[in-house]
Amino acid sequence: MFLLIDLSEKDKIHLELFDEKTSCKAEYSGRNRELLTSIDAFFNKQKFDKKGLKGIMAVVGKGSFTNTRISAVVSNVFGYALKIPVMAIAKEQVGQAQKLIPKLKKMPVGQYISAKYSGEPNIG
């Protein structure tokens, strides 16, 4: 199974577990700091063990500076710890995640994604 992380909407966490044939989506209300808790709850609800992850896609380039950064960092940490490929995708590609599996599988393990931002950070 593959995991899709989408934090592009304010205070919403979109997750999807999928493979070539099946897909299961979940949406959690909450701030970006609740991403790991939401992933854990989603995996538990699906009775899915993280060791079964084959790759992760994360939406970058849309949403807040912090949300984009957290999506990239969490994806990279899972990629490093589980030795699986990670891939950045645009918000417009979320509905095509299953079609992107061959591209994700070709991503080299150990090549990590960078956050792409939709605007300048607003710190202050």
Question: How does this structure look, described?
Answer:
This is Gcp-like domain-containing protein. It comes from Candidatus Magasanikbacteria bacterium RIFOXYA1_FULL_40_8. InterPro entries: ATPase_NBD. With 124 residues, the protein is of the alpha/beta class. The chain has a single domain, classed as Nucleotidyltransferase, domain 5 (2-Layer Sandwich). The chain has helices at 35-46, 65-82, 101-106, and strands spanning 2-6, 12-18, 23-29, 55-59, 86-89. A five-stranded mixed β-sheet has the order 3-2-1-4-5. Strand 4, helix 2 (65-82) and strand 5 form a beta-alpha-beta unit. The longest helix has 18 residues, at 65-82. It is globular, with a radius of gyration of 13 Å. The mean pLDDT is 91.
Give the overall shape: globular
Percentage of residues in helical conformation: 25-40%
CATH-wise, what's the superfamily?
ATPase, nucleotide binding domain
Number of strand elements: 5
Helix/strand/pairing category: alpha/beta
Question: How many helical stretches?
Answer: 3
Detail the poorly predicted runs. Answer: none
Protein name: Gcp-like domain-containing protein
Organism: Candidatus Magasanikbacteria bacterium RIFOXYA1_FULL_40_8
InterPro entries: ATPase_NBD
Describe the structure concisely.
The protein is an alpha/beta fold and 124 residues long. The protein has 3 helices and 5 strands.
List the keywords.
124 residues, five-stranded mixed sheet, 3 helices, 5 strands, Gcp-like domain-containing protein, ATPase_NBD
